[in-house]
Design brief:
The structure is a single chain. The chain is mainly alpha-helical and 169 residues long. The protein has a domain at 38-89 and 113-169: Up-down Bundle (Four Helix Bundle (Hemerythrin (Met), subunit A)), CATH 1.20.120. 70% of the residues lie in helices and 4% in strands. It is built from seven helices and two strands, in the order αβααααααβ. It has helices at 2-25, 38-63, 67-78, 96-101, 105-112, 115-136, 145-165, and strands at 32-34, 166-168. It has a two-stranded parallel sheet with strand order 1-2. It is elongated, with a radius of gyration of 23 Å.
Length: 169
């Protein structure tokens, strides 16, 4: 009989905790929604996936101490001059007629991208260039892994900052 009383108290506590925990179990995505037309969204998401693959390739190159390869990947696929940075580059001033004639997907994506999102993207692409420079400067004589990893950390954090603030649909 005593065990039934303990079991009842345990069940009441369990139910009380479950009910109390319920509201926090439903998380609402608080990130800013950025809506793109279907074609632009697909290209944008493909670009983001390529960024992730580029980061994986960089880490693989670093694991084999191939700093030049890591630098080349960062520059060519993530740096400010990479194709992936097209939508984040500062645009030249255009007339309204020029805007209507734009056929370039990166240009149109850049027009739809919120200013804060574009700034975060530019920051990530600049950090990719900084990482590339740190990796290229890591010669056989120097081996400054700390500087290379610190630059990689800034690059990854820049990705995380943008992804934690924005979502795409």
């Amino acid at each position: 009989m005593k065990s039934m009383g303990i079991l009842s108290v345990f069940m009441m506590l369990f139910v009380a905790f479950a009910v109390q925990a319920q509201p926090s179990a439903i998380k609402i995505d608080q990130r800013q929604l950025v809506e793109y037309p279907k074609d632009a969204r697909e290209e944008f998401l493909e670009n983001m996936r390529d960024h992730l693959v580029a980061l994986a390739d960089i880490v693989t190159a670093l694991a084999t101490r191939n700093y030049i390869e890591a630098a080349n990947i960062a520059s060519s696929r993530l740096g400010m001059e990479s194709r992936g940075a097209d939508g984040c580059r500062p645009m030249k001033s255009h007339s309204s007629m020029d805007m209507m004639r734009m056929h370039s997907q990166p240009d149109s994506m850049a027009l739809m991208m919120p200013g804060d999102m574009k700034k975060l993207g530019q920051r990530m692409h600049r950090f990719a260039d900084e990482f590339a420079e740190a990796a290229r400067n890591n010669t056989d004589l120097q081996h400054d892994d700390v500087a290379v990893l610190a630059a990689l950390g800034k690059l990854v954090q820049a990705c995380s900052d943008c992804h934690s603030k924005f979502r795409i649909r």
